[in-house]
Amino acid sequence: MRLPGIVPRRTGPLLLLPVLATLALCLWGVRRGGSLWRDEAVTYDMAHRSLPDLWATLGNADAVHGAYYLLVHALYAVFGGSDPLLLMRLPSVLATAAATAGVIRLGNRLAGPRSGLLAGLVFALLPPVQEYAQEGRSYALVCALVVWATDALVSAVTTRNAKVWAGYGALMLAACLLHEFAVLPRRVSRSLGR
């Protein structure tokens, strides 16, 4: 059974334009003169701790970012000789490109290819999207997971497939593990801070 208005549409190569624009915009000035801001300095510090020390710290403070710190810790362990600032911000850049692709897909599925293209371009140009795309924090990854979870939700409602529902649940669980704001309504998360 298909819901009215939800029609799978073919995507053309033109729909890649917003993803490429997102990558170009996110990579432009990503090092910001080599400076870190306060929360990124915390990410850098936590990611460079030993796993036992990191685990002990998460037991007392900042546990909300624990999964993200473990991800960045693994990146530094594998690519330690790379530019540390770029390496810390690159997951956010790639996640923003993935979120753009998800926005395009949703727009395409719900309203057609032109809407998908426009939605992807507008998303890529939004100042908050650009801000979080260049931060060494979990926000861009959470955004990408929530966008793709929304796509999975549309598919699950449309197809009523148990595997698609499980995929939706897994994406939302991953988003919530990266940051609890993924599960909170916007009004509540705004009153709590970021």
Give a quick rundown of the structure:
It contains ten helices and no strands. With 194 residues, the protein is mainly α.
Structure write-up:
- With 194 residues, this protein is mainly alpha-helical.
- It is built from 10 helices and no strands.
- The chain has helices spanning 17-27, 38-47, 51-58, 66-78, 84-111, 113-125, 127-133, 139-159, 162-178, 186-192.
Biggest sheet statistics? none
Secondary structure class reads mainly alpha
Low-confidence stretches: 1-5
User: Helical stretch count?
Assistant: 10
Short descriptors:
194 residues; 0% strand; globular; mainly alpha; disordered N terminus; 70% helix; 10 helices
Reconstruct the topology from this structure.
Blueprint: H1 17-27, H2 38-47, H3 51-58, H4 66-78, H5 84-111, H6 113-125, H7 127-133, H8 139-159, H9 162-178, H10 186-192
Helix pairs in contact: 1-5, 1-6, 2-4, 3-4, 5-6, 5-7, 5-8, 8-9
